[in-house]
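pls ignore typos typing on phone
zinc ion + seq
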Amino acid sequence: MRTTRGLVAGCALASALLTLVGADTAVAQSNKDESRRTTMADVQTLVDRNVEFAKSFNQGDLALLPRLSILVLTCLDARVDPAHLFGLELGDAVVMRNIGGRVTDEVIEQIAILRGLAVVAGGTGFEVAIVHHTDCGASRFANAQVRQRMGEVAGTGEAAIKRLAIADPQISVAEDLDRLRAAPTLPDELVVAGYVYDVTDGHVREVIAPASLRKGDGS
Ligand SMILES: [Zn+2]
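k done
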């Protein structure tokens, strides 16, 4: 039940990548029809599961601010659900997910706003954990041919996809922490950390230890 968002997004990503493998028009149309049929059935599965979830629901008094002052940014891949990786329960942590778990201008703005909300609501803000993973769909974007084809299919052009490419998750995590450091809306004292999740063994491994975003003035 905690995986629903990841399932829906993951199916869409898997479908998009399958199309890229190069099926001819007839097969692509067949996939499209199959996708449409399956998606409708899967939505009903979600609705049915929610009915079961609500039967025993007893957490209607959860606070706005999470129990852990943590914001997890990770990929929307269905295999990389933080609720499972980190044993998160309802109300434990804030989770943001996008393709690759990349730091974009929009993500930076949302982190700044969320931190503002937390502080205004009486909290101290969030620590930010960036979690990329092995075998990420965004690793396919490192291939120029795939990128070009995807840009055409998605209608976004190649450049938007290139910005999300992950050749090596250890490097992309470091790049994204640098993007946070360069963001003027994020304070020096914001604690950030970087990790890579291995989809083959279940381990989340530290790439960059938790530390303040920037050193203070004069230090
Ligand atoms: Zn991914």
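Residues 1-12, 18-27 have pLDDT under 50 and may be disordered. The CA atoms of residues 106 and 124 lie 22 Å apart. more later
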